[in-house]
């Protein structure tokens, strides 16, 4: 294995051959993280989820906004809560593990949720119409600039008049102390690999976009995972939303509806379609 190849510069938004949602081992780890109610892993902790659902359902009640699309729904944690609150819910997620879990849970709980296991960038979900479209836990920021704009355009097309797109992103405050790093360590049965491996972890900055790269080497194989994150100020995201046709944009500290603070490391946006 040529280790030098692993530490070369990575082009902005390059895709790694391995994928955290499809890798047999890491995908299971991701599902476990989603279901951990105590930690802010793939899904935020239970108390925050409850708080955010309470705000969303009060501000956008099901009688006024009956049809909901949950993009990046994961194992259905928010989708189930929306369904219990009286919404008609569709959830789309790329992860087979998450959708299988969500479908089985909905069947067990007798919840009429429609789940679709596909890449929401590729499929034409905008052919239907919704009152609310949600993307929760900063999913929008992991997309390339091109794909992010595509999703915003699709959301605008898919919303009914007076519909709302609701999502959160990370802000520059999250990375205010950022430094580029490159570390090596030997791991055994870690989050990234069940087998003993050499793990090279890199953190790099590309303007307002950040890369977390994980290179894993063992006797049998090598894998690389790239995780991208773009951050936004409220002004930047508001301008982008209005450039995609949204007429009114509100912003908050988080998706629980707390008042905006300049030091917040997240921002929640509610974008309205006329």
TrEMBL record:
GO molecular-function terms, A-Z: transferase activity
Q: Which residues form the signal peptide?
A: none
Tell me which InterPro entries the record gives: Methyltransf_25, SAM-dependent_MTases_sf
The record ties this protein, via Gene3D superfamilies, to: S-adenosyl-L-methionine-dependent methyltransferases (2.20.25.110), Vaccinia Virus protein VP39 (3.40.50.150)
Keyword Lyase annotated: no
One matching Pfam family, short form? Methyltransf_25
Keywords of the record, alphabetical order, are:
Transferase
Nucleotidyltransferase keyword on record: no
Which residue range or ranges hold the Methyltransferase domain?
Answer: 68-163
Under the heading PANTHER family, the entry gives:
TRANS-ACONITATE 2-METHYLTRANSFERASE-RELATED
Mind telling me what this protein is named?
A: Methyltransferase domain-containing protein
- Source organism: Enterococcus pallens ATCC BAA-351
């Amino acid at each position: 294995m040529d280790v030098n190849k692993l530490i070369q510069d990575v082009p902005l938004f390059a895709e790694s051959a391995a994928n955290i949602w499809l890798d047999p081992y890491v995908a299971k780890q991701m599902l476990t993280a989603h279901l951990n109610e105590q930690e802010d892993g793939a899904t935020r902790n239970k108390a925050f989820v409850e708080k955010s659902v309470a705000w969303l359902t009060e501000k956008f009640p099901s009688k006024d906004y009956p049809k909901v699309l949950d993009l990046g729904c994961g194992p259905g944690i928010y989708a189930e809560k929306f369904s219990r609150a009286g919404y008609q819910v569709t959830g789309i997620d790329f992860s087979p593990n998450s959708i299988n879990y969500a479908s089985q849970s909905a069947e067990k709980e007798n919840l009429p949720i429609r789940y679709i296991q596909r890449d929401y960038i590729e499929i034409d979900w905008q052919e239907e119409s919704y009152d609310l479209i949600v993307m929760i836990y900063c999913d929008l920021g992991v997309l390339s600039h091109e794909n992010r704009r595509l999703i915003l355009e699709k959301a605008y097309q898919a919303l009914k008049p007076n519909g709302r797109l609701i999502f959160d992103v990370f802000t520059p405050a999250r990375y205010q102390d950022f430094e580029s790093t490159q570390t090596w360590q030997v791991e055994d049965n870690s989050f990234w690999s069940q087998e003993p491996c050499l793990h090279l972890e890199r953190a790099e900055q590309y303007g307002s976009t950040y890369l977390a790269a994980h290179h894993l080497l063992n006797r049998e194989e090598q894998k690389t995972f790239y995780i991208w994150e773009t951050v936004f100020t409220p002004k930047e995201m508001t301008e982008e939303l209005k450039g995609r046709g949204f007429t009114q944009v509100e912003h908050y500290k988080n998706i629980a509806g707390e008042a905006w603070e300049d030091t917040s490391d997240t921002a929640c946006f509610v974008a309205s379609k006329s």
